[in-house]
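Troubleshooting: if your tokenizer reports a length mismatch, compare your output against this known-good record of 286 residues.
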Amino acid sequence: QPGNGSLLATHADRKELFISAGKRIVELTKRYYEQDDETALPRNIATKAAFENAMALDIAMGGSTNTVLHLLAAAQEGEVDFDMTDIDRMSRQVPHLCKVAPSTQKYHMEDVHRAGGVVGILGELNRAGLLHNQSKTVLGLTWEEQLAKYDIMLTDSEEVKSFYRAGPAGIRTTQAFSQDCRWDTLDDDRAEGCIRTKENAFSQDGGLAVLKGNIALDGCIVKTAGVDESILKFTGPAVVFESQEDAVDGILGGKVKAGDVVVIRYEGPKGGPGMQEMLYPTTYLK
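Known-good structure output:
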């Protein structure tokens, strides 16, 4: 549902979002089981064009490297021809249009929402010619149609604009639907705001990049949006560990010094097991 990726967890608008999502699931199920409509099936929505749209979004907002893992796994399961080669190609074409924490402390998810959320970013990608806008969404619309309804830069709907003005209450709570605060205005500044046009992008290179080398023959992902410009090109000695646990012991034991490159092996889906995020080593390095 539009807005689901950015609306604050505790906002009252979440209730209607949940209800509409549930109704949509029932509608799709009925279309398939009662009308034999196979266009309602996930495999007919999650096409290669849809995967490329999802990846373009992630690159444009300097999103999570985990997205790559999940999209590649979903593509393999859905028998969609989408792989690291596609991601490498796209990373050289899609600019960095939206900056959000932890890559910056200026903008957080509530700011992304105020600027139009995921749909707002996709709208800018579309205007830059970087979106498959005839690809269908789970709402049964093409992206061109969906953007016309939900992109704050295009829509005339006051309801949609009010939805994207949903903001924080400044109260620490995990209680669902506990506040209904709204910003006075939307962030539609595409020159210096949270979401930018291609011409005003944070960088013309995307927020993610594919790297290859002798320790990553098939490629690896770096979140360039979170890398300081001073170390985009870097040379240093590699300190290699065989597991996350060994890396933690080595870091705390003084085996890693300023200027070293930490390499942790055997932490993939099988080795970890489960491809653990290397949060402990990165925490102890700070």
